Amino acid sequence: MNASWSLAVDMGGTFVDAVALRSDGHITALKHPRAGRRLAEPVVEALDLLCAQSGIGPSDIDRVVHGSTVITNLLLELNEPPVALVLTRGMRDVPVLARQDRKELYEPVIAPALPEAKLFPEPLRFEISGRIDAGGREVEPLDLSAVEAIADAVVAAGVRALAIGLLFSHRNPAHERALRAALQTRLPDIYISLSSEVDPQPREFERWLTTALDAYAKPLAADYLHALAEALTVRGLPALRLMRSAGGTAPWRDLAEQPIGLAMSGPCAALQGVAACLGASAPGPAIILDIGGTSADISILLDGRPTFTDALDCGGLPVRQRCADITSIGIGGGSVVSVLPGGALRLGPRSQGAWPGPAAFGLGGDLPTLSDALCVLDRLPPQLAGGMVLDRAAAERALGDVAGGLGLSVARTAEAVVSAAAAGMAEALKTHAFQRNLDPADAVLVAIGGGGAQHAAEIAELAGMRRVLVMPHAGVMAALGMLCSPGEGDVRLAANESPWEQLPPQGEGPYALFTPMTSAFVPPGWSWRLTPDQMLTLEARA
Questions:
Q1: Spatial contact of 119 and 83, defined as CB atoms under 8 Å apart
Q2: What mean pLDDT do residues 216-234 have?
Q3: By the 8 A CB rule, do 491 and 470 touch?
Q4: What are the tens digits of pLDDT across the range 74-88?
Q5: Cis omega (within 30 of 0) on the bond before 112?
Q6: pLDDT tier at 496, thresholds 50, 70, 90
Q7: Shortest CA distance to 392 belongs to which of 410, 416, 404?
């Protein structure tokens, strides 16, 4: 029997989204809560549950694609052990000095360009003699006599990964390859990244930093991907493919070897999903708003296609990688709310994530979050995907301290939190659009992710936009987009399926809409209608 199903699974900070796409375009999906800090296990659990609910057996499946925010979150949080660097003699401080761009012009103290202590502290930066010139010619032989001392120091520090960056290696990688071979002989279990393979382009700082970040991600990525691939093999499923930040998919082993290519895999997949769902009906320029539990991702579709860039900024770290042109800000459902000394509200960048999660989730979290504010305002359903029952009383208790600091009732505080979140996301959206010569007023806003439709109309109003689109599978768009990657063949999506089962065909706000995958809020002054192709359209009334 011919295989008829394709599976995709996207792991975010709070939920794992799984989608099964049948060859006739039928889609089935679920959201599975991600418990704790586990990586491979929640992905496998979500796939097992999806297959069991849909009656899909291993012989029915022809491909499995995966993407996640694991590498993105790793670079944002920097909570893994540091890596070692081996650089050309005299270049030890190049990754630390950076480009000396001063973004905060009026700060009295200039912060370090990079968090070197977390990434590659001075004792773990080594130098080696030998030089290639700008023409790719060897002008000084590589001095491999230093390898023993470097290896001993790396072992003593307990380092698991190492990055090699030598001058002009993008023109001639011979020295880097020879150094890797010598180090691997002495340290067979260490992960090594070469700048000539990770980022073979001019400009040493950018090339060496990107290579160091690749090495930084390798131990976690390798452990996680090997465990996931092994679990799928045991179940008789096809070899795992991974979504790349640059679009398209690749065999998992390729990206385990170079995990920096996963830094924006989930958001890029979501963009591809939107483009595939809109198809030829794309309404001119579209700004995509993808809100999850940890962050809000903002991007643009022009002529129905995603836009790309050759660099990304991840938590202030400049990473030179081809990827979808996306701006990420630390505001999501799990963003922690605090009151600044001056009395202003602050959301994020700290997030409660999946564990312990917002107080409303009932998993032990007690810090106030955006989701708690939504719960208090009855803008979330009593039960979320995966059977998670919300605890409104816990949400009110969590917001109590914030309310005391502001001198407001809990309900008014919740309104203030939601308004602050919308204002922050609207400013980020306007900045992203204007920097790319697009006036938000000339675009439609497409809301995806578990929280996109919850805030989209309020954000659109602040940004001068009058129309919001919410697609039928907005809550699992990243997973769906992995199956619509270039090179995956013609993908058909059934247009007659809708999660908006209990929704009247049209109406006016204020109105809260709930589905198993996402929730939407229509504020006062806005109306909604459900189109024949199951697109939910929100429009500002004149």
A1: yes
A2: 95
A3: no
A4: 887 788 999 999 999
A5: no
A6: very low
A7: 410
